[in-house]
Amino acid sequence: MTRVLVLTALDVEARGLARHLGLAPVAGASSPHFIGGVLELATIGLRGARLAERAAGWRAPELVVSAGVCGALAPALAVGALVVPTVVLQGAGERWPTAALPRLSGDGALLTVGAVVESAAQKARLWMETGALAVDMESAAIMAWARGRDVPAAVVRGVSDDAERGIPAALAAAVSEDGRVRPLRAVTAALTGATALGDLLELRAGTEAALKTVAAALATLARAS
Question: Which range of residues forms the domain containing residue 13?
Answer without folding.
Answer: 4-224
